[in-house]
TrEMBL record:
Organism the protein comes from: marine sediment metagenome
Any coiled-coil regions, as ranges: none
PANTHER family referenced in this protein's UniProt entry, alphabetically: GLUTAMYL-TRNA(GLN) AMIDOTRANSFERASE SUBUNIT A, TRANSAMIDASE
Molecular function terms, GO-annotated: catalytic activity
Gene3D superfamilies: Amidase signature (AS) domain
Domain annotation Amidase: ranges: 1-117
Protein name (Swiss-Prot/TrEMBL): Amidase domain-containing protein
Database matches in InterPro entries: Amidase, Amidase_dom, AS_sf
Length: 132
């Protein structure tokens, strides 16, 4: 499943072509020892989780530690700003993606330069008459 999720998706504009960034075969590496693996935990991510989830994570970390992985806790100082930053970035991305279609309104091509020089009342009158 991980190999499929990590691969290129032509329907996803944020996906990277495998020629640019090849996807490793995760199944092939499944039996590799994890002695050199470092796992970072952000306590704030887990703090609000259900008790069963916290216990399951703790058990998993104990298993990884027993297998030789290094478990470290890290602090993300500006985590409180993450959601606000997400909304700023997401709306900017949406605006950028929609900008290429900004010159079309309901399937009618609109001359943006001409509109810019018009009064609003004239703009709507012209749009209405162009649909007839």
């Amino acid at each position: 499943m991980m190999n499929v999720i990590a691969g290129y998706d032509p329907a996803d504009s944020t996906s990277i072509d495998e020629r640019t960034a090849p996807v490793p075969d995760y199944l092939e590496r499944l039996d590799e020892p994890i002695r050199k693996l470092k796992i970072a935990i952000v306590p704030e991510f887990v703090a609000g989780a259900d008790k069963q989830v916290q216990e399951a994570l703790s058990t998993a970390l104990d298993i990884y530690k027993g297998l030789g992985a290094e478990i470290i806790e890290i602090e993300m100082a500006h985590l409180d700003y993450a959601i606000a930053a997400y909304y700023v970035i997401a709306t900017a991305e949406a605006s950028s993606n929609l900008a290429r279609n900004a010159s079309q309104i309901n399937g009618y091509r609109v001359n943006i330069r001409k509109i810019h020089r018009q009064r609003v009342i004239d703009l709507f009158a012209n749009l209405k008459s162009s649909r007839r």
